[in-house]
Model the fold of this input.
Amino acid sequence: MKIFSRRQFLKLAGIALVGTQIDPARLFHAAPQNVPLTHMGRALFAAPIHSAPNAPVIAHLWPDSVTPIHASKGLWYKVPQGYVLKTALQPMALDETPAQIEKPIFWAEVAGPVAAIRQWCAADAPFVTRIGHGGVAQIIDFLPDKTTSWYGIAAENGDLLGWSQTIHWRRVSSEKTPVSPLRLEIDQQQQTLTVYQDRIAALTTPISIGQALVPGTYPLQRGQMGSVVNHEFHGVPWQIRIGADYNLNGVYWHNQFGTARPGPAVQVTPILARWLYQNMDDNGFVTIV
Done:
């Protein structure tokens, strides 16, 4: 299995570091900085595998199955069996450190490909919903078991949404760790986000815009660590309010950044949303053009 550096992962995930102020390791919060991460892709749907780019389909990946990603080539990822369109896979930088079971209440993110939420603590219990890799929810209850322990997952209003196996979750922090005042610039025509630190462009990445944005300059404010979108997607991570009318969120249900998508006004990868959320200060703002 091929191992990638953090900088290589960010490149494959579409995040380009264009300045020297951001250490790639700072975008990752769990694994030690000197430990490479296993780079995998989560199939967002029944993803066709091609023998070569634009060649015939030779197989499919099951939804939510994972596969190693060996390289990036244009619109395609190279996987062991062939090539898969980037829009079909969500890149995952997996931390192999075993997650610790902790007692509530705390916030956690989905560390594996997906976490199923069920009505009670059993693998065959009625299905409630699913939260994809990088999604964030509040853990409000805990039930140990001889074989599999379970966390009680909170709904957005704080009530119990359902139960999920603890193995899928890893604690995250809401602590601010600002490196310097952040200024963001969103280019609606290009569907890109550029992050500036001390007036120097630090990184740029494609984004998805969910609604037309009025050009201007807006203050940034941290919102919910995990929220719900359209009563459909739970655990939508790292909400940042843009002025009074817009939200920036990480999204785990598509990898079509660079094109318009329904959902939050501004959509980025969960890893970037977390980094922005944790590195904001009270003077952050975004310019929309």
Observations:
- The two ends are 42 Å apart (CA to CA).
- The first helix runs from residue 6 to 12.
- The mean pLDDT is 90.
